[in-house]
Specification:
mainly alpha; globular; 8 helices
Length: about 230
């Protein structure tokens, strides 16, 4: 096989390398857009559900997750220099935070929750200030683990409305975040796998709970309930 002269071969390899880097950058940007859209839809569904079914006073986002999410978005918006996704997420997180405060049953609980939110803001300020590692990225994955675990732990205490749909968009948002930062470190890779596994289990469990709730009652059970 005839080979190109060395200078042309080198030029071709440089062009291919440049094209490859440009393609990877475009793919990363697309994934980050999809990540932003999926999480925005998830938060929007939480806000819509909380407003529509506000009379039930059931949470659509767990309390710890709501506090950490709000705190993280404040610092992420400042660090990103006003990235569109962080602006949208923070606005939606403000609405979610207000809903969580409204759903709490007493003034004392609202005061304590507000104190926890302030503590979360202060703690994440310290994490974002550390220069030895990417505090913004690592804290986002740690918070995602906490959120996935908390959603699963309190699933029966959350509103059953739109539970599966919100779970699906959370799963997609986490999946795109994992793909976008997969090569960052082994720690991020492992956390991403853990988060996705928990989210898949959450959706399956939510579907099972919904099917049990919608399962028709047999004639025998109807008679038994009537007697009682």
């Amino acid at each position: 096989m005839r080979k190109l002269p060395s200078k042309y071969q080198q030029l071709l390899e440089e062009r291919i390398g440049l094209w490859s880097e440009q393609t990877q950058q475009e793919d990363k940007e697309l994934i980050e857009v999809l990540l932003g859209v999926c999480w925005a839809i998830s938060y929007a569904l939480i806000v819509m559900g909380g407003y529509r079914y506000r009379h039930e006073k059931l949470f659509f986002m767990p309390l710890i997750s709501g506090a950490l999410n709000f705190a993280w978005e404040i610092h992420a918006l400042c660090s990103s220099g006003g990235y569109w996704a962080h602006i949208v997420w923070l606005l939606l997180d403000c609405a979610i935070l207000l809903q969580n405060l409204y759903f709490l049953s007493s003034v004392k609980k609202r005061f304590l929750y507000s104190a926890c939110v302030i503590a979360a803001v202060a703690a994440l300020y310290g994490v974002f200030s550390v220069k030895s590692f990417d505090g913004m990225l690592l804290s986002s994955f740690v918070i995602d683990v906490i959120m996935a675990v908390e959603y699963l732990a309190v699933i029966t205490k959350l509103s059953p409305k739109m539970r599966i749909l919100i779970g699906i968009f959370r799963l997609l948002g986490d999946a795109f975040a994992w793909i976008s930062n997969l090569r960052f470190s082994l720690f991020v890779c492992i956390l991403g796998i853990v988060i996705l596994s928990i989210n898949i289990f959450y959706i399956s469990y939510a579907a099972e709970l919904s099917s049990k709730k919608n399962k028709p009652i047999s004639v025998k059970n109807k008679r038994h309930k009537a007697k009682n």
